[in-house]
Amino acid sequence: MENFVVSARKYRPHSFETVVGQGHITTTLKNAVENNHLAQAFLFCGPRGVGKTTCARILAKLINTPKDISQEEADKLNFDYNIYELDAASNNSVDDIRSLVDQVRYAPQSGKYKVYIIDEVHMLSNAAFNAFLKTLEEPPPYAIFILATTEKHKVIPTILSRCQIFDFNRISVQDIADHLALVAKNEGITAEQEALYLIAQKADGALRDALSLFDMIVTFSTDNTIDYETTIKNLHILDHDYYFKITDALLKEDHNSMLLFFDDILSKGFDGHNFIIGLGEHFRNLLVCKDASTIALLEVADNVKEKYHEQANAASVSFLLTAMNISNQCDLNYKSSKNQRFHVELALLKICHINSAINLANQGELKKKVLQ
Q1: Are residues 138 and 267 in the same domain?
Q2: CB within 8 A of 132, min separation 6: which ones?
Q3: Under 8 Å CB-to-CB from 179, ≥6 apart: which residues?
Q4: In angstroms, rounded to a whole number, what is the distance separating the alpha carbons of residues 358 and 63?
């Protein structure tokens, strides 16, 4: 029986061309290598799972690879002994940095550069940062430092000023979904587009998290199939159909159906706070669908876009703006409420009668104009 390799490792990029969603960084780094315009210290910043360490390893390998050889020949070369990785989360003392500084004094036995990748660099102590300053500012010509962190604000300014800083973006839902579709195809897995979008949204911009969720759902499946229903159950996500049904009830001012829908949601173990946040996002998505120029901001599958577009036609801009405001106020005050269920129900009842309030206001304006 072969050992299972998680998708995050199996499909880890080995070249800049295969890095997902960070084109602004990979293009700059490739040009720097090709033009021999390399800085001696880089700082890769950004949220987890977006490719900071991966890009550091690719860059470390690329700068030691001769330019006049083919990709196949480059893959055969092994410069691992020229690359040193240090986890600053567990090696954050002055002694650890002094040990690294001592290694820097020795030139590489083969290859052009020695590359030092320091992950989670913000975890270094102040004393360790200070011990590292001089080496980082004036390293030998064969040494390159690549620092990676999820919390740039914790890195001291004197370190930041000595580095070329690259800010990694959260990966878009579309890019993650497309990458998951490619992985599914390579693994012989049948996956619904809607399910892949759901995984991508749950990952919150982190490709590694998306691949971990993908593996979990594939493991649950008995026939190598990922469908929407299985995905929402495994990820414990509230089905968007609930938001469509509740919004329909709100637009019809059917508060009885709306309260029953909300009770059904709570009975299935979903949190009222997450529900009201999701409802606010649903109203935002409907507002986005009101104009063709903003519909690109809607990061959902194509068949769900049609549902949003249909419901958006039934809701006025005034209704959506007021509903977004009420749901946002409910979100802000949820934790301080003594009766949280009633707090959400009251917000829903207010939303339910927005159209009536708008009509009354319009009638009042008409009466004023007649009297004048």
Answers
A1: no
A2: 97, 100, 101, 124, 159
A3: 11, 20, 207, 210
A4: 65
Domain-terminating residue out of 193, 213, 235? 235
- Walk across the sheet containing 143-149 and list its strands: 83-87, 114-119, 143-149, 41-45, 164-167
Domain carrying residue 33:
22-167
Q: How far is CA 126 from CA 131, 151, 227, in A?
A: 9, 15, 50
**Beta partners for residue 274, in sequence order:** none
Q: How many helices (H) and strands (E) does the chain have?
A: 18, 7
- Which tokens sit at 339? 């009766």
Within a 10 A sphere around the Cβ of 139, how many other Cβ atoms?
A: 18
pLDDT in tens, the chain (372 residues): 457 778 888 888 888 888 888 888 889 888 888 888 888 889 999 888 888 888 888 888 888 776 666 656 655 666 666 788 888 888 778 888 888 888 888 887 777 888 888 888 888 888 888 888 888 888 888 888 898 988 888 888 888 888 888 999 888 888 888 888 898 888 888 888 888 888 888 888 888 888 888 888 888 877 788 888 888 888 888 878 888 889 988 888 888 888 888 888 888 888 889 889 989 989 998 888 887 777 777 777 777 788 888 888 888 888 889 989 999 999 999 899 889 899 999 999 998 888 887 777 666 666 666 655
36 and 162 in a single domain? The answer is yes
Provide the number of structural domains found in the chain. 3
β-partners of residue 145 are 41, 116
Closest CA to 348 of 259, 252, 251: 259
Structure tokens at 299: 């990061």
Asked whether residue 256 is assigned to any structural domain, the reply reads: yes
Q: What is the pTM of this model?
A: 0.77
Cα-trace Rg, the chain: 27
Burial call 188-226: b when 16+ CB within 10 Å, e when fewer: ebebbbbbbbbbbbbbebbbbbbbbbbbebbeebeeeeb
